[in-house]
Write a structure and sequence with these properties.
mainly beta, 4-stranded antiparallel sheet
Length: 309
């Protein structure tokens, strides 16, 4: 079986204590097991599901063959600090990594070398990256800023925050952006359209090239299907979204979850809130099955829950 070791070599488990005198596990040294020397912080499967890219706290990026578990490529210093996010190009020939230092880098799998580097002007870590096309990439920083880049020249083509985009749509002054965003999720819908989730009560579907907002998703909206009156918990109006995903494969729904553990199901193109579901506990992550109408959610507990819309 294949697995990632989220513990450093200093783990004090009984098994580790028995082999503490050895410098490294022999199979790990040969990259015969899917292991890192530092905690794994980011993973991403290839578009054809034959490979898996993983990045860890010491800046190492590895690419694994899922059929054998063998390490096909290793970038010893993909980032100067921790690798915080990873994305594949559409043809699977390149990888983008974001780091705790706020720098974004592209890497060629054939050459095994860094291809380009992109630096955010503001401080903070990179929390989400993606390819818009072969010539443009997108990244989001922990200060809430989303930037569109020319992949060849590394120049910035567009830069925005969710408050700026909403203010442009509504023709009002930009709301304060001084809040601590911490995490921004970028969900690709089609072409240059991405859903931006920035730890606020409103997520947006925005064309990153023009900065135009096509739809917004608010936790203050009234659902078409309300929770039953006997429900033990009710969501707080204006709850903060902390994670999101799109339904697969058609991406006709955007699912956002709040700090309280309520899941909101929005129609992607219109922003209509169809229903709210009580997950029963605080949730920190969501993922949609690639073909089934099923969502996985997880949080502080050791349980992963599956939900069907």
């Amino acid at each position: 079986s294949f697995f990632f070791d989220r513990l450093s070599d200093g783990d004090e488990s009984p098994r580790r204590r028995e082999t503490a005198a050895r410098p490294r596990n022999r199979t790990q040294a040969k990259d015969e097991l899917m292991l890192h020397d530092a905690p794994v912080l980011a993973v991403q499967a290839s578009p054809d599901s034959t490979a898996l890219a993983s990045g860890c706290r010491d800046g190492t990026l590895k690419v694994w063959r899922l059929s054998t578990g063998a390490c096909a490529r290793k970038f010893a210093k993909a980032q100067q600090g921790a690798v915080t996010c990873i994305a594949w190009s559409r043809d699977g020939s390149q990888l983008i990594t974001g780091g705790a230092d706020g720098v974004v880098r592209t890497h060629g799998l054939k050459s095994g070398r860094q291809l380009q580097q992109f630096s955010h002007s503001a401080s903070g870590s990179t929390c989400s990256v993606g390819f818009v096309s072969d010539s443009t990439i997108i990244s989001a920083a922990s200060d809430g800023r989303v930037t569109l880049w020319d992949a060849r020249s590394a120049s910035s083509l567009q830069s925005l925050t969710a408050p700026e985009a909403l203010a442009k749509r509504d023709r009002v002054e930009v709301a304060s952006t001084s809040r601590n965003v911490a995490v921004v999720s970028l969900l690709s819908v089609e072409g240059p359209k991405f859903v931006v989730v920035d730890r606020s009560a409103t997520a947006i579907l925005v064309d990153v090239r023009s900065g135009k907002v096509h739809a917004s998703y608010s936790s203050s909206s009234e659902p078409q299907r309300a929770l039953p009156p006997e429900a033990p918990r009710k969501p707080t109006t204006g709850g903060v979204f902390v994670a999101a995903c799109c339904s697969q494969p058609r991406r006709d729904y955007v699912y956002c979850v709040t700090e309280e553990g309520f899941l909101y199901a929005f129609v992607t193109q219109t922003g209509v809130l169809e229903r709210i579901l009580d997950l029963g506990e605080a949730c920190s992550g969501l993922e949609a099955h690639p073909s089934l109408n099923t969502i996985a959610c997880w949080g502080a507990s050791d349980v992963v829950r599956l939900w069907k819309h």
